[in-house]
Specification:
The structure holds 2 protein chains of 2 kinds.
Chain A (H helix, E strand, L loop, with lengths): L1 H19 L1 H21 L11 H23 L1 H6 L2 H6 L5 H23 L12 H28 L6 H14 L12 H9 L1 H13 L9 H24 L3
Chain B lengths: L4 E12 L2 E12 L3 E5 L6 H8 L7 E6 L2 E2 L4 H7 E4 L11 H11 L4 H14 L15 H13 L5 E5 L7 H17 L3 E6 L2 H7 L2 E6 L2 E6 L1 H6 L4 E7 L2 H11 L4 E4 L3 E6 L2 H14 L4 E7 L3 H9 L5 H16 L2
Parallel strand pairs in B: 3-8, 3-9, 6-7, 7-8
Antiparallel strand pairs in B: 1-2, 1-4, 4-5, 9-10, 11-13, 11-14, 12-13
Helix pairs in contact in B: 3-4, 4-5
Chain lengths: 250, 330
């Protein structure tokens, strides 16, 4: 299959780039640490369902946040490829648009895997004792969530002409997705309007699955297989949508 | 079966709103030709190339590249062409070799063959010993050479070079010309290059199309284009050039004349003999002549003849500045 080789090439590029930017790897770990150790400690006495402390409660949420930030950013970074001309090399090659998006998504999935491997052991710091099964479920789940989110970034990139609008995206898309995802507080205690927001937010389902896996079967908002299904459908729909926008010619 | 022509366009047109960037272009380019699209920036050269490379769709008309229709068989077109874009299009974070390897993947060159080809093309552009350095450390000329190498990696039948030497210093430019000439001599590849550098078109191209406002003004060999001017070019610099030009037009002394605020260009059969008479005419009407020069027609004169304006260095500048700015962003 020649398309597989093309996807491999694109994936390999993403991984090389990620691996060479060690500072990006380090900085993407600092933010989750701040949330867990500073914010989490400050609110440690807040009662939460299904977890022992607030810190341990937000741990899966912070995993989700890390995925959200790095994946969306990885998608949006296509703007740089466009700015620096590299995108043309890809767009003029005999490669299907779907392969381009899949290559990018797998690249981002791989960085999610690397981050997960580093972040998951930190769970012990905040009192979450992950079982080996949790580990095995969490890593591929993180990849799945990342694939959906990188496509959100790619779609945003197709609407943006330069990196200048990034702050706008940050406050209009990324932060609202984070705050309404149930990463920081249980949605069961949230007002109805907020819960409605949460249900259309794909990250809600991502955080839900992560929490379910981390706490060995905590209550999920919907039956867990439905939540998984939503995540899979979301990723597939986003990849299809991105392939379409990539295929548009001027 | 081998198609007869490398490129054939039929009324190829691209409109952006009210602006017609390319206007009913009809062009036939043979296999193995080095063909130049010469014109100022904004003439539509890059738009033509982008349509032929299937990056943008024409508004109307059609074209074939290597016998494949650009609309219906774009995948086959893409597989059979190589491109060096006007703006840089390499990944800075990767090494030269990694950029080439990625290209080999994208064009499905089998990995064993790719290894061999990568060292071939690196050798061709003289970058073997830099191959494993990050692109960030490459100079402008080296980047361009690597892009040329990359464009050749999958053995395309047609190679598009969009302003291949834009923004390079004269020495690097000449080096790159040597690579291109060498390539044209040793392979059967068809090369289509766009440029607004006269010397570049003159030196490299077998045929040239002069393009202005999206239309072809003339197509011919550089030598024929220059002889169509029939004679030599006299340039007269004078502060009263308009007055003098009016008088000369009345006398019908030249085949062709262009006048600006302070100079006049005449194309005439026997320039040397005409100069004393011109000076006399100028003295008679009281126009002061500051200098007179005679030269064999260059492509620049040809361009002026067909478009009525100079390709000046300033016209190249806005794009050049963008180019440099992009380089400097990071």
């Amino acid at each position: 299959m020649s398309e597989l080789r093309k996807i491999y090439g694109l994936w390999h590029r993403e991984v090389l780039r990620y691996w060479r930017e060690k500072s990006r790897i380090v900085s993407s770990l600092i933010l989750p640490l701040l949330w867990l150790l500073v914010f989490g400690s400050g609110l440690r006495s807040m009662p939460v369902p299904g977890a022992q402390t607030y810190q341990s409660y937000i741990f899966p949420g912070i995993l989700g946040m890390t995925l959200l930030f790095t994946s969306v950013f990885s998608g949006v970074s296509v703007i740089w490829d466009r700015e620096f001309g590299f995108l043309k090399e890809i767009l003029v090659a005999p490669v299907s648009r779907t392969s381009i998006v899949i290559g990018k998504a797998l690249g981002s999935g791989t960085s999610a895997l690397i981050q997960g491997t580093i972040l998951l052991p930190l769970s012990y710091l905040v009192g979450v004792h992950l079982s080996p099964i949790s580990f095995v479920i969490l890593l591929p789940t993180m990849v799945l969530i990342s694939i959906g989110l990188v496509s959100v970034g790619l779609l945003i990139a197709s609407l943006m002409t330069s990196m200048e609008g990034f702050n706008f995206i940050m406050s209009l898309v990324i932060m609202p997705m984070f705050f309404t995802s149930g990463a920081l507080f249980p949605l069961t205690s949230a007002p109805v309007w907020l819960r409605d927001f949460s249900y259309v937010n794909p990250l809600t389902y991502g955080v839900d699955v992560l929490r379910w896996a981390a706490f060995g079967g905590a209550d999920s908002i919907l039956p867990i297989y439905v939540v998984f299904l939503i995540l899979v459908l979301f990723a597939a729909a986003m990849i299809t949508a991105c392939s379409y926008t990539f295929g548009l010619k001027k | 079966m081998e198609p007869k022509t490398a490129i054939e366009t039929r009324d190829l047109t691209k409109r952006y709103g009210d602006l017609t960037a390319v206007d009913k272009l009809n062009l036939v380019i043979d296999h193995g030709e080095v063909f130049g699209l010469l014109g100022p920036n904004g003439a539509g050269k890059t738009t033509i190339i982008s349509m032929l490379c299937t990056i943008i769709s024409p508004s109307s008309g059609s074209a074939t590249v290597n016998g494949f229709d650009i609309l219906k068989q774009s995948a086959k077109v893409r597989r059979s062409i190589g491109i060096v874009f006007q703006d840089p299009s390499i990944d800075d974070r990767l090494t030269g070799r990694e950029n080439l390897q990625l290209h080999a993947c994208l064009y499905d060159v089998p990995s064993e063959l790719a290894k061999k080809r990568i060292s071939e093309v690196l050798n061709l552009v003289g970058l073997e010993d830099r191959a494993d350095f990050a692109m960030k450390t490459y100079s402008g000329g080296m980047r361009r050479r690597l892009e040329l190498a990359r464009g050749l990696l999958h053995h395309p039948k047609v190679l598009f070079l969009d302003e291949p030497t834009l923004g390079l210093d004269p020495q690097t430019r000449e080096h790159l010309w040597e690579y291109i000439e060498n390539l044209a001599r040793t392979t059967k590849i068809t090369i289509i290059l766009t440029t607004h550098y006269m010397e570049e078109a003159d030196q490299l191209c077998q045929r040239i199309a002069i393009i202005d406002y999206g239309k072809i003004k003339v197509i011919d060999t550089p030598a024929n284009l220059k002889t169509t001017l029939k004679g030599d070019v006299i340039t007269i610099n004078s502060a009263q050039s308009e007055k003098l030009a009016t008088r000369l037009t009345e006398l019908r002394l030249a085949h062709h004349m262009d006048a600006s605020k302070d100079s006049i260009r005449l194309t005439v059969p026997n320039a040397e003999k005409l100069v004393p008479r011109l000076i006399k005419i100028a003295t008679d009407i009281g126009a002061e002549v500051s200098s007179v020069s005679i030269h064999r027609p260059t492509l620049n004169d040809v361009f002026l003849h067909y478009t009525g304006r100079d390709i000046r260095a300033e016209e190249a500048e806005p794009s050049f500045r963008t180019f440099m700015r992009r380089r400097g962003v990071r």
